[in-house]
């Protein structure tokens, strides 16, 4: 049976959205093609009509996750009072809802070590998504030059991803909130106070 291009595009979008969420929740290596296809109500055999390989799906799903995260960060920054964009991005990133929702949160905090173990060809493709994410956040970073702002955005978001990963390991909700509060205080002081 032949499907329209629109039907194929909708299914592609469903697969990609589900993979972006599932990979962050359970890991890309743990979530097989069959798992993702079943969650969107499609058979495993239809996967190859949309993607060449699982690596291609993984790269696109990670790109989607960075895009979602970047879009959300920019939205909160733009809606903040003048000069408070970075403050609200830090507060949102280091929040309990973000820590408790890996499936819709930061892909580095959810998949960082797994991304680092991917073949070089896959890592290079993912690196483009990371660079695009950084570029979106660059306007909200303090600094006189692009190089200074870029260094700060790289350090800040890599560090916060490490904090978020560690917070997610803590079993006590009270301890998790304490760690988040301490990290928020540190990063706000280090990056937003002049």
Report on the architecture of this protein.
- The protein is mainly α and 194 residues long.
- The chain has a single domain (52-192), classed as Tetracycline Repressor, domain 2, CATH 1.10.357.
- Helix content is 73%, strand content 0%.
- The chain is built from 9 helices and no strands.
- The chain has helices at residues 5-26, 33-39, 54-79, 85-93, 96-99, 107-117, 120-137, 146-169, 173-192.
- α1 packs across α3 (54-79), α3 (54-79) runs parallel beside α7 (120-137) and α8 (146-169) packs antiparallel against α9 (173-192).
- The radius of gyration is 18 Å and the shape is globular.
- The chain starts with a helix and ends with a helix.
Describe this structure in a few short sentences.
The chain is mainly α and 194 residues long. Helices cover 73% and strands 0% of the residues. It has one domain (52-192): Tetracycline Repressor, domain 2.
Q: Estimate the strand proportion.
A: under 5%
Q: Shape, please?
A: globular
- What is the level-2 CATH architecture name? Orthogonal Bundle
CA radius of gyration is 18 Å
- The low-pLDDT segments are none
CATH topology: Tetracycline Repressor, domain 2
Write down the secondary-structure element order.
Answer: HHHHHHHHH
Structural class, by secondary structure, is: mainly alpha
- Distance from first to last alpha carbon: 63 Å
Number of domain units: 1
């Amino acid at each position: 049976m032949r499907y329209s291009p629109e039907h194929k595009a909708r299914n592609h979008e469903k697969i990609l959205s589900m993979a972006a969420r599932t990979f962050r929740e359970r890991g890309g290596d743990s979530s097989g093609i069959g798992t993702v296809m079943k969650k969107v109500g499609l058979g495993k055999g239809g996967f190859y009509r949309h993607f060449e390989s699982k690596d291609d799906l993984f790269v696109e799903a990670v790109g989607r996750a960075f895009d979602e995260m970047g879009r959300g960060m920019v939205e909160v920054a733009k809606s903040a009072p003048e000069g408070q964009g970075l403050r609200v991005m830090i507060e949102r990133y280091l929040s309990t809802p973000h820590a408790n929702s890996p499936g819709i949160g930061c892909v580095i905090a959810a998949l960082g070590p797994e991304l680092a173990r991917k073949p070089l060809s896959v890592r290079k493709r993912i690196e483009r998504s990371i660079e695009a994410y950084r570029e979106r956040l660059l306007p909200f970073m303090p600094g006189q030059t692009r190089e200074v702002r870029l260094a700060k955005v790289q350090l800040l978001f890599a560090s916060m991803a490490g904090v978020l990963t560690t917070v997610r390991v803590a079993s006590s909700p009270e301890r998790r909130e304490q760690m988040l509060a301490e990290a928020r205080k540190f990063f706000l002081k280090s990056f937003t106070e002049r």
